[in-house]
Amino acid sequence: MAESDIPHGVLLDRLHALANQSLRLWDLPTGASARLLNVSENATYLVESPDGSKSVLRIHREDYHSERAIECELAWSQALRDEGYVNTPAAIPGANGKAVQSATSEELPNPRHMVMFEYVPGEQPDENRDLVGPFEELGEMAARLHEHAIRWPRPQPFKRLVWDLDAVYGSGATWGNWRRGPNLDAPMRDVLERVERTVTRRLRSFGQSEQRYGLIHADMRLANLLIDNGTTWLIDFDDCGFGWFLYDFAAGISFIEDHPKIPEIREAWVNGYRKVRPLSDDEEREIDSFIMMRRMALLAWIASHIDVPEAQELAPDFARVSAELGEAYLSRLG
User: Fold this and answer.
1) What is the total count of domains within the chain?
2) pLDDT digits (tens, 9 = 90+) for 254-281
């Protein structure tokens, strides 16, 4: 049976067993054990040892990234940390000295890549409280990442995902075809077809100069920030790759694009960004196109990840709200 055919609950049980049997790949205290923190693209585990030490194990989704692509992710995260641009958790090498490990089990015979990270204390910003302050900080952080990406001599070969128009709208879209989104009826589809054509036309005109397009985090949500005694950590570079810099704002408001405070959040992010690097009025006006591009990518993500609890929770209304956002986007453009 292919892993894609394994019922989600059964797969989680098998991954839990794989996580615990794989701890031997690192020099951990005897008695260390792993328990699931969350599952999305990957399964992430908190590893706790009898001496009180902790770390975080990430087991990668099958066939999502190559070993080299994961090494490139870790190289960028380490460079950002070492050069003082952003606080990021360090990868913990395995007993063989390699950051990326692979393992199989009898029930999961296809090799799974995995990485162990240092444990970072802290809490995520509360999305039910003030969002403006955290998003201003996210804007500053995004600008620092982009400045670093422009200047950084990347190790070669450098392999990462690409978040361009083809990645969202192409025949081989990374997360699949948005038209397969759950509860998407014909009128909604008609709206989103017009949105796709409009976004495509506008972003082709926007262009991919090195000041607008490069290496991005691609998932800079509040869920990927940890704040500890005034220190902010950026985690989870698993989706990092090449895309438009402004896509990082759109990714930052993933799943809350219809939040009533989005105009304030957007203004705060832009203000934070401009503290670090220039952002023209023309570029700011195009943010709406990136929001719709990301929203439609998420519609495809829900369809292709429907076994994941988060996708199931979002499925009932996501297509309808996406079409409403699309109508508003098209109306603003006249």
Assistant:
1) 2
2) 999 999 999 999 999 999 999 999 999 9
- What whole-number distance in Å separates Cα of residue 292 and Cα of residue 178? 12
Q: Would you give the DSSP letter of residue 152? A: -
Q: Which residues of 97-121 are buried (b: 16+ CB within 10 A; e: fewer)?
A: eebbbebeeeebeeebbbbbbeebe
Are 54 and 46 spatial neighbours (Cβ–Cβ below 8 Å)? yes
Residue 220's pLDDT is 95
How do residues 92-148 score in pLDDT, each as one tens digit? Answer: 999 999 999 999 999 999 999 999 999 998 988 876 778 888 899 999 999 999 999
Whole-number pLDDT of residue 129:
75
Same domain for 217 and 239, yes or no, is: yes
Q: Are residues 108 and 139 in the same domain?
A: no
Paired strand residues for 241? 161, 216
pLDDT tens figures, 30-66: 999 999 999 888 999 999 999 999 999 999 999 899 9
Say if CB 169 and CB 198 are below 8 A apart: no
Amino acid at 311: A
pTM as predicted: 0.95
Give dist(CA 159, CA 240) in Å, integer: 10
Return all residues near 274 (Cβ < 8 A) that are at least 6 apart.
139, 143
| Type of residue found at 12 | L
**Does residue 179 contact residue 254 with C-beta atoms inside 8 Å?**
no
Last residue in a domain, options 92, 118, 144:
118
* Measured distance CA(168)–CA(170) in Å, rounded: 6
Residue at 91 is within a domain: yes
